[in-house]
Amino acid sequence: MGRLATFTRRAFLFGAVAVAGGAAFGFYKYRQDWPNPLDKDAPEGAGVFNPYVMIAPDNTITVIVPRAEMGQGVTTTLAALVAEELDVPLSMIKVDHGPAGNAYFNTAMVSAAAPFYEFDRSFMAETVRSTMGVAAKFLGIQGTGGSTSTVDAFDKMRQAGATAREMLKDAAAKRWNVAAADLKTGDGKVTGPASGQSLTYGELAAEAAAIEPREVALKARPDWKLLGKSQPRTDMLAKVTGAPVFGIDVVLPDMLFATVKMSPRFGAKAVKADAKAALAVPGVSKVVEISTAYGNGYGIIASNTWAAFKGAEALEVEWAEAAYPADSAGISKVLADRLAKADGDVMRDDGDVDTAFADAPADKVIRAAYAVPYLAHATMEPMNATAQFKDGKLTLWSGNQAPTLARDFCADMLGIEEDAVTVHTTMMGGGFGRRFELDTALYATALARETDGRPVKVTWTREEDMRHDQYRPAAVAEFAARIGEDGMPVAVEASIASPSILPSLMARTYGMSPAGPDKLLTEGSHDQPYAITNYRVTGKKADLAIPIGFWRSVGNSYNAFFHESFMDEVAHAGSLDPVAMRLTLMKDWPVATALVEKVAAMSDWKTPLPAGKARGLAFTLSFGTWVAEVVQVAETPDGIRIEKVWCAADLGTVLDPAIVKAQMMSGIIFGLSQALSQEITFADGMVEQGNFTDYDALRMSQCPEIEIELLENNSHMGGAGEPGTPPAAPALANAVFALTGKRIRTLPLGKEVTFA
Amino acid sequence: MQLTVNGKPIEIDADPDMPLLWALRDLAGITGPKFGCGVAACGACTVIIDGAAVRSCVTPVGSVTGEVTTIEGLGTPEALHAIQKAWIEEQVAQCGYCQAGQIMNAAVLLAANPKPDDAAISEAMDGNLCRCGTYPKIRAAIKRAATDMAKGA
Q: What distance, in Å, lies between the first and last C-alpha atoms of chain B?
């Protein structure tokens, strides 16, 4: 860990300097390019144009999409960015994730951490964001997260396609002794002014790739042929024919199978263990101790996965006690106590909240307390990774959202150099933030040390997966508002207490805990486009040693529930229509008002519904994307039925409408699943839930009709993967209130009402 | 022990208690059926045995007497089944992990009920979980496949 810790401290120091002072650090580091990861293993005769484009003599055009495909469509949209500029149809492109490479650093993911409101596009905010982009290059972390893939790739990958195209033209111009400007490109060919002058990209690739790239202007939007239009997904055929595209499908010669049994009490170690019964299971060959900052426990190696599962079941272990309260009641008390303390990080402080409340008449003040539980990611594909350690070299096969980190940390574990590690990033059966973590790769590496050079595929049981997550943290909040004479809020004060994700993540990776305010803790509450004269939001970090991580939409996943439920309460307290109130509060942000008007029109908001039906509205700006959702519910003999969801979203530029709509739909259903039934609880220091039998998600029969419209009023491109999720739960809770008069301030709502 | 999978006999050396899923995946190298839960709660492992949708993760391989069809045997990239074509037309899959199970389950539904209404689709497909939330598209694809299959596509 030594080498990594030093590097990271340096990098974070740089990040801090960049934020505080504006790039005091030398820019030479920024200019210094990371090596092209494709140079190492490029096939004979292929032209490697840049880290994204490689063309073989037979005209196979490989585009590297160095982001994790977990369903969000990056293997289509990012490939289309290159194809658009390269002048080839998407069907001609072979999409490959490519090797782990620092050159694939994600600028947008780091810039998003800048300490500004999402809607703040001032010179100062933009300067800091761009300076942090410089830090991103220095850090060189290849990562997929924060709904940043398209935002980050938009210029980079179009530029990669455009420069390659011009290099191919230059090569052809040289051959034909004509001016490059007179040449045309299309369908993977360069054609010249004379008749019959035509060469495939493949025929030109080797010489073209050797030409110095030059500055190229990108196509203007009206000239786009692929972008802005829905494309057939490049991964669809494989996924409907059962092709082995996932990490769990990896099959290698001489491969062993394994599983893990890690301490169900986080951070605890085994007090005693007896492997005799486990080793007696036919097929089980070895039980290996695993000790990492992610967890302690055992790996069970066998001749097939089922034998490994049975071996794990038979392994007798007594685990030490947990260093956190043993049950949910104790955990809730830690959160409640933290919320009750006055100190915290003030993340928004408009006007004078104290004075506004000081002289408020009691009947003009409303207060509400909210709470949400821990949540598991529960990806469809259980955690797994395959590793082989042979001749001092490690090869990893894993669906992961952070390949360079997996490479670096696994190298560190084995005490080998990073270039002795090869990472094959597979497609992943769901990510939702879970596969950013390094536990699967580290555990597989720990087992690969013990298999004499044979590859070992490590598959977790669903129960192991559910009970060893890095959870969406539990959170509690108190909101108060002073209602003015006109019914509008004069003052809003919010305090939110929750464990902070970054310290949890940093502790299990770099062994350090960053101090300072955490904007993820209050995102969705402090950074929304509402103009309220007196408006204060305070984040309070709670200390709980339960591992937490990024769960689709992160802090927005609970803050939206708090904030938008409360906005609905404010509207009702002031006898205002929730749509009308928002239009007034948001009038400084026309992008927001246009969306609210749009979703109101889509849902026919102004027309009253018959008895037994009701609607609820919620709005959240997250990941640069503005989203308004209306949920309609109906009373039925079997309970409350979610009939329909309308969603209007503004991402600025929409690169692929069908994929973006699919992401919004996915995000909505993910959010409704959270709202209906999901809850991770603790007893005896362990997670109680283990499978879809006690931690379920929305099913076909409960799935509402969903209608989505995309607007493009925003001046900046936003993300697609996460922003659909936050408004779903509060829109549903608000609809349930409108239907039943029952205000539910805790999730899941299914504990208070029955859903049909 | 002998099994017939996708029309081909295969010989495997398995404990009869081993779930069919692991026999297929780890011993026969047939990875289309997916491991999701191990307790028949998600449907990702669905295969067809004698015309019935079977959760292979809880079916002991020793109990299997009929012919097993997995997604690989339903259709291939070169010769797609009408249901797979409908899935492509509707662009159903996102992460795609549950889709083999969804398609196999839908195949059994459509064999029994060539024109299922919304209630029949909900009932038949409720045991197949999708964390990406592709349900509205699955529903549309089943309806499309029903229409196409009625036309003899």
A: 37
Q: Which amino acid is at B146?
A: A
- β-sheet bridge partners, residue A625: A622
Chain B contact for A254, CB < 8 A?
no
Nearest chain A residue (CA) to B74: A241
Pairing of strands B8-11, B2-5: antiparallel
3-state secondary structure of A91: helix
Under 8 Å between Cβ of A338 and A540: yes
Residues of A in contact with B76 (CB under 8 A): 241
Cβ–Cβ contact B24 with A under 8 A:
no
In the three-class reduction of DSSP (H, G, I as helix; E, B as strand; rest coil), residue A473 is classed as coil
Q: Strand pairing partners for A644?
A: A632, A705
Angle at A696 between CA A692 and CA A701, to 5 degrees: 120
CA–CA gap between residue B126 and residue A388 (Å, rounded): 39
Q: What is the pLDDT of residues A109-122, one digit of tens each?
A: 888 888 888 788 88
Nearest Cα neighbor of A444 from A472, A424, A466 is A424
Question: A236 and B87: CB-CB below 8 Å?
Answer: yes
| A343 CB-near residues (< 8 Å, 6+ apart) | A540
* Three-class SS state of A532: coil
Whole-angstrom distance, CA of residue A709 vs CA of residue A647: 6
Nearest to A729 by CA among A629, A638, A657, A582: A629
For residue A748, cis peptide bond before it (omega within 30 degrees of 0):
yes
The tokens describing A599, both together, are 């979703």
Scanning B27-46 for CB atoms below 8 A from A yields: 27, 29, 31-39, 41-42, 44
Note the ipTM here: 0.98
Q: Tell whether the model's pLDDT for residue B39 goes beyond 70.
A: yes
Distance separating alpha carbons of residues A77 and A655, to the nearest angstrom = 7
Q: Quick one: which of A734, A723, A616, A632 has its CA closest to A670?
A: A723
Which amino acid belongs to residue A499? P
pTM of the model: 0.95
Cβ distance A432 to A404 under 8 Å?
no
The residue to which tokens 């007179």 are assigned: A182
Q: Give tens-digit pLDDT for A119-158.
A: 888 888 888 887 777 777 778 889 998 889 999 999 999 9
Average pLDDT of the residues in A627-640: 98
pLDDT at A10: 40
**Which H helix or E strand runs over A483?**
strand A475-483
The answer to whether A240 faces chain B, any CB pair under 8 Å, is yes
8 Å CB contact of B96 and A305: no
**Mode of pairing for the β-strands spanning A47-50 and A53-55:** antiparallel
- Phi-psi category of residue A182: left, alpha or beta, with phi > 0 → left and psi -120 to 50 → alpha: alpha
Chain B 46-65, CB below 8 Å of chain A: which residues? Answer: none
Radius of gyration of chain A (CA): 27
